[in-house]
Design a protein that fits this description.
By secondary structure, this protein is α/β, with parallel strands linked by helices. It is built from six helices and 14 strands. About 20% of the residues lie in helices and about 30% in strands. A six-stranded mixed sheet has the order 1-2-3-4-5-6. It has a six-stranded mixed sheet with strand order 7-8-9-10-13-14. The chain has a two-stranded antiparallel sheet with strand order 11-12. The longest helix has 10 residues. The chain is globular, with a radius of gyration of 15 Å.
């Protein structure tokens, strides 16, 4: 399995392609559609996974929406269509409803790439993380040395703390974390060193 990181210049947001045997998943298609499409050349992508609804993570949806859209909660599915919650101004970034809504703890195979959904509200009320093998795609829930903001619509600091402490920090220390912004880290490192929540 290979992981490609595509960083949008405007918001420094991370989009990921998880590829295995020429088949891939796209996670959080951000603000640089051209770069995303270029990196996806030669990879068959049938599913787009979204960690949450904010515009910098879903900006390219309409441009690459030949794939099925996957979210991890009913709330996220609704929030994507609400421009006040997605912070997209007067532009709705998805013209279609979500195709697949996973549930908390659900494990599913997408073209033989196995994904576990972990519901992690706090940054938004519909935020989720995806565990693929020993790799966690954490969106804006957990960063290297930090956590996501809670002062945006539907954010809640207590929910975020519970999500990080009671769910993410229960994962093995060896799990690599691929956040929505910034560099990768590990669960073990964050448990000991994160400036917001440590074990």
């Amino acid at each position: 399995m290979h992981i490609k990181t595509i960083v949008s210049e405007e918001m420094q947001q991370n989009c990921y392609i998880v590829e295995k045997d020429g088949i891939g998943l796209l996670i959080d298609p951000g603000m640089d559609t051209f770069k995303i499409l270029k990196e996806a050349e030669g990879i068959k992508i049938k599913y787009i996974l979204l960690t949450h609804c904010h515009f910098d993570h879903i900006y390219s949806l309409n441009e690459i929406r030949d794939s099925k859209m996957v979210v991890g909660s009913e709330k996220c599915s609704r929030n994507i269509l609400d421009t006040k919650i997605s912070l997209s101004g007067d532009r709705r970034l998805s013209d279609k409803p979500c195709d697949i809504i996973m549930s908390d703890g659900e494990k599913r195979s997408f073209d033989r790439i196995y994904v576990k959904c972990i519901y992690t509200p706090g940054h938004t009320d519909g935020s989720v993380c995806y565990l693929i093998e020993n790799n966690l795609f954490s969106g804006d829930t957990l960063f290297s040395g930090s956590v996501g903001r809670c002062d945006l619509p539907t954010g809640n600091i207590k929910d975020l703390e519970n999500s990080v402490r009671k769910k993410l920090y229960k994962l093995p220390d060896s799990v690599t974390v691929y956040p929505g912004h910034g560099g990768s880290t590990s669960i073990g490192f964050e448990k000991k060193n994160n400036g917001y929540f440590t074990e």
